[in-house]
Design brief:
Layout (H helix, E strand, L loop, with lengths): L19 H21 L9 E7 L8 E7 L37 H21 L10 H28 L1 H11 L23 H23 L4 H38 L13 H17 L7 H9 L7 H4 L9 E8 L2 E8 L4 H26 L25 E2 L5 E2 L1 H11 L3 H10 L32
Antiparallel strand pairs: 1-2, 3-4, 5-6
Helix pairs in contact: 1-3, 2-3, 2-4, 3-4, 3-6, 5-6, 5-7, 5-10, 6-10
The protein binds benzoyl coenzyme A and fe (iii) ion (2 copies).
């Protein structure tokens, strides 16, 4: 089950050749995917280059990644599910203890399809957002990492399209086609979720996106990995192993910009990283504020009957539902959420099932907090003592959920809109910040060289030296 068949046109470990109808349907979708990739994937001549990429060879722990040079359009995108767990039961909600579903239960068909389509839509969206970045890549190492993330987001799309084709019939096939028709940021046919329609014009944005937005992916996939719809759970479990690298790229990318800023501050007579062509720490904080707030929006409303329904049905659990929690009905319990009452925050108890988006968001926030603590350690390790990064409140700068209708400062205090606007340029990237960061984005494509605004990573990829030619 765990070995991947690479002799097939679509590599897979789901015995695709035994289901000719499904195989034919997916083989029909495949050229449309490649067309989309060629149109909307990495732009600027990179598709013809050989890139040092990892490919899944087996879903077994430790043994799945194999590195080698491939041209991106020839990447072996496929369908890889984690091995089934014998006798697995629905773990939570009203259907707990009944056998997991191997087919879509009729009453949950629409709900489940919506979850799969929403998840699926983010994957090609991120590739579209990142398509111009290689043109200004700060090093070969970073460009390779960008492409690794891109091809794996492409594979995540395959993972979801397999579910749509395999389990949702004609509607599923239509949705799979539509996934290749929407475009990030297009006013007429945008991607579904806000964060995936925001531009990604510079590498600080890319590293913040892979830190904060891919981390939403981790939490959403983990919640779906608990699903009673077994094919979804098994797909998400394998996707999570790929996601870990995306988070690594983001966190270490921002850290290297921070380290370089500190070095440049120490070199400058006025301690000014910008004067030395670096990205100063307050600017990095503003990017953090922006991408954290867009990413917390992705968890949906604080009080959500959709979320309650997903949990009740056993379709979407909490983070580590089965290993961390002992009570799995979530009935007769509440979650405290500060709500706005006459312009003031009043903590109210919300029925737990309706607060599931917020429960997941809080897990996510705590994980982000740890990332910031590691970045702060990097600042201190550089001997810089007068600056600390801080994670904004989940109420700050929201466009979804109960806090979207009011202004909040980064500490989460309700403030008048005029006050927010007066501080906007201090809290969020300004046009001048964006122009400055954009001015630094000059390509460095020579092996081993780094752009001035980012420190070199401590080591290369898969044991290769830093000056290895990762893209030929
Ligand atoms: N933007 O009850 P509510 C990833 C809509 S990232 C725009 O609050 P619900 C990745 C919502 O659709 C992980 N619209 O929300 C990362 C609903 O619309 P309708 C992606 C939004 O349904 C990096 C209405 O507002 N995976 O993998 O409880 C690179 C009120 O809904 C937004 C998933 O999202 C928004 N931010 O929760 C590559 C998992 N937020 O129905 C990949 C699947 C909400 O009124 N999705 N709305 O028209 C879900 O589980 C849920 O749909 C959500 C929303 C958590 C997204
Ligand atoms: Fe993904
Ligand atoms: Fe990702």
């Amino acid at each position: 089950m765990s070995s991947i068949d690479y002799s097939e046109r679509i590599p897979n470990n789901v015995d695709l050749s035994s289901d000719k109808r499904l195989q034919r349907a997916l083989e029909k979708w495949q050229p449309a995917f490649i067309d989309w990739w060629n149109d909307m994937g990495p732009a600027g001549g990179w598709q013809e280059r050989d890139v040092f990429l990892r490919t899944a060879v087996s879903v077994d722990k430790g043994g799945w990644a194999q590195f080698g040079f491939v041209k991106m359009p020839e990447y072996r995108w496929g369908i890889f599910l984690e091995a089934p767990e014998a006798g697995r039961l629905v773990g939570f909600g009203d259907n707990a203890a009944s056998p997991v579903w191997q087919e879509v239960p009729g009453e949950y068909r629409n709900t489940l399809q919506r979850i799969v389509v929403t998840q699926a839509d983010t994957e090609p969206a991120s590739v579209e957002q990142q398509r111009w970045l290689a043109q200004t890549g700060p090093s070969q190492y970073d460009i390779r990492n960008l492409f690794q993330v891109n091809v794996e987001e492409g594979r995540h799309l395959w993972a979801m399209v397999y579910l749509l084709h395999g389990y949702f019939g004609r509607d599923g096939r239509d949705e799979a086609d539509a996934l290749l028709e929407r475009r990030s940021g297009d006013p007429d046919k945008p991607r579904i979720l806000d964060a995936f329609n925001q531009p990604c014009p510079d590498w600080l944005t890319f590293f913040c996106f892979t830190t904060f937005t891919d981390r939403d992916g981790k939490y959403q996939l983990a919640a779906l990995a608990e699903s009673g719809f077994d094919p979804l759970a098994r797909t998400c479990r394998f996707m999570l192993t790929e996601e870990a690298h995306h988070l690594f790229v983001g966190e270490t990318g921002v850290r290297r910009i921070i380290e370089r800023a500190c070095t440049l501050m120490k070199q400058d007579p006025n301690g000014d990283a910008r004067a030395q062509g670096g990205i100063d720490l307050p600017t990095i904080q503003r990017w953090v504020n922006y991408w954290f707030s867009y990413s917390v929006d992705l968890f949906g409303g604080e009080i959500s009957s959709n979320a309650a329904d997903f949990f009740a049905a056993g379709l979407k659990g909490r983070y580590k539902e089965m290993s961390k929690y002992t009570e799995h009905t979530a009935l007769g319990q509440t979650h405290a959420i500060p709500l706005l009452r006459d312009g003031r925050l009043v903590v109210e108890d919300v029925p737990l099932r309706n607060a599931m988006n917020e429960v997941l968001r809080e897990e996510y926030r705590d994980d982000c907090q740890k990332v910031l603590e590691r970045w702060n350690k990097a600042v201190r390790d550089q001997g810089v003592t007068d600056f600390e990064f801080s994670l904004p409140s989940t109420r700050f700068h929201r466009r979804q959920g109960v806090y979207a209708t009011h202004a909040f400062d980064p500490n989460g205090n309700a403030i008048p809109l005029a006050e927010f606007e007066a501080h906007r340029a201090e809290w969020l990237p300004s046009d001048a910040d964006r122009a400055y960061v954009a001015s630094l984005m000059k390509p460095v494509h020579e092996p081993g060289k780094m752009a001035n605004w980012i420190a070199a990573p401590p080591r290369g990829i898969d044991g290769r030296p830093l000056d290895f030619e990762y893209v030929r």
